[in-house]
Amino acid sequence: MDRRGLLRGAVVVGLGAAGASAALPAAAAPAIAAPSGPREPSLAPAPEAPSDAPAGTAAGVTLAAPTIASCDTWGAEAPRGTISTTSGRPNKILIHHMASANVTDYSQAAAYRIARDVQQWHFANGWVDSGQHLSVSRGGYVMEGRRGSLNGLRAGTHTVVGAHCPGQNSDAIGIENQGTYTNVAPPAQLWNSLVDLCAYICQQYDIAPTQIYGHRDFRATACPGDVLYSMLPQLRSEVAAALNGTSWSVTIDNTSSAFSASGNWLTSSYSSERYGSNYRYTTPAEVSDLATYRATIPSNGSYRVEAWFPGISGYNTSTPFIVYTGAGQSTVRVDQSTGGGAWLSLGTYSMTAGTRTVVAVSRWTGGSAYVVADAIRITRL
Prior knowledge:
five-stranded antiparallel sheet, alpha+beta, 6 helices
């Protein structure tokens, strides 16, 4: 059966054996993974370790286990057959996207519902259980996929044989990320949870951050989407920093509870260059009406501040971004008519520790073109 050949409801999953190389629409049918049992050889050779992140795990810090909902917690049915256990540790992580709708319901209930739906779709394919080891929802909830995966991860000595990528089902931990990331980035909640989860997996199994790959590295598939795949170097880097205890980073999207804006800031999903599901916009005005991003700066030090926004001709060419360091503030004016869909540095600042508004977007500028507030990233250097 073709990887995208089976539709199960309005939301679809994208685990897969073989897949199309074209971009996938949000309502594409689910990608099909191979069932447990004999595994066909990989269609692509194992790639060499990327050079964009430090190699090896570090012994400098011990990471706490992230919250992971077990199969029983999210209401899984019992497996419909025997799940095999590996004899040793996995040696890599494979990142997938579900090729499902980019829903805006970020609740725990929605996360558990997609986990149950995935299991039912995979039962319909004749598999004994969900194919992936772990799943991350758009709201950042992490869930066990195939039963036994969580116990293996906690032990750090073994895992169960998955069904997420033929040729890698015994060697790689498969992580499914809810949504479709062909043209948009994942929400900040998902991204932050994915970083924490990958770092914990690397710690438990002694996997180097360089061994984090995309599904397409081993199969002919569009998974995990062009945008998410392009973010894998950043993922490796942030995971390495978490393991080394030398860096810290937080991404705050406009959908986060750490974002605040008045009703004058309207919501749009018009541009595909947005971060996550939508962004906020408003007209210029000489009023104090800020869109703000709040964060907890963990310690005094040097931090890089970046902004993500859709760059559209006709958007404001001098949008004020205000950076609050704890000891003062600095205003950076950004041309939002171009250069969108990527992280733009607002500069590096010496910041003091504490919880506060760290960045704000102001309406106080000239012209009538919209000013935009989308996502902010703060990284300790």
